[in-house]
Specification:
Strand order of the largest sheet: 3-9-10-11-12-8-7-6
Number of domains: 2
Strand content: 35-45%
Helix content: 10-25%
Largest sheet: 8 strands, mixed
CATH topology of the largest domain: Protein Transport Mog1p, Chain A
Number of helices: 3
Number of strands: 12
Structural class: alpha+beta
Radius of gyration: 19 Å
Distance between the termini: 38 Å
Length: 221
């Protein structure tokens, strides 16, 4: 069984598939040559970032990190997760789960959140290598590949931008996406991109902002 994760309009969609099937509904046999070709293709083709339907508006406007955003307090009983390849702890509300999705060489992606009634709350956390030199031009090119619901980017740090919306795919939902750049494993040189994209009903807005505040504090951007 294969889990496929697609990003459409800023929402994460899951599909479960059972492999190739012929027109009679049976499993289509795979020859040894086909298996070898598939293995070679999988090894040679890294995961491709989906083209954003509505990228953010450039250039980012002047701004600062929103100091009024809430942070997790002891009463929240948030849980702190250690996710392979992320490089910093991730704090999320109780009941949330983070599962790997489309991880690849130089890039890890997790879907994090919870199903609350009929609502999906949460989104995705991505940490990927930033090509060297990870300068302004490189950062801008990478940022343009991120879904931001057509909202204007604003600076929230020297190497971090934020976009927010109250409409996601035409629905009344809060959405945020943060794109930040931090040093790689070699030290002070910028080498990693962090993308945090979260959506949910308006009543979940403070919880989403607490997650964002926690990521910012842990990743130090």
């Amino acid at each position: 069984m294969v889990l496929v994760v697609l990003l459409a309009g800023g929402g994460t969609v899951f599909f479960l598939t059972n492999g190739d099937q012929d027109h009679k509904g049976g499993t289509k046999p795979t020859t040894q040559a086909q298996q070898k070709a598939q293995t070679q293709t999988s090894a040679a083709a890294p995961a491709v970032t989906p083209t954003p339907l509505h990228p953010g508006i450039e250039p980012p406007r002047v701004g600062n990190w929103p100091e009024k955003w809430p942070a997790f307090a002891a009463k929240d009983k948030a849980k702190k997760l250690t996710l392979d390849g992320v490089g910093f702890p991730v704090s999320v509300p109780l009941g949330w789960a983070c599962t790997p999705a489309a991880n690849d060489a130089g890039s890890v992606k997790y879907t994090c959140g919870i199903t609350a009634g009929s609502d999906q709350v949460g989104g995705e956390l991505i940490v990927r290598d930033c090509a060297q030199p990870c300068d302004t031009a490189t950062q801008e090119a990478m940022r343009k590949e991120e879904e931001a619901w057509g909202q204007e980017w604003r600076w929230v740090g020297k190497n971090a931008t934020l976009a927010e919306t109250l409409k996601v795919d035409g629905a009344d939902r809060y959405g945020m996406v943060i794109v930040a750049y931090v040093p790689g494993s070699t030290g002070g040189t910028l080498g990693k991109q962090i993308v945090l994209r979260l959506t949910g009903p308006s009543q979940w807005r403070d919880d989403l902002r607490k997650v964002a505040n926690g990521v910012r504090s842990a990743a130090k951007f």
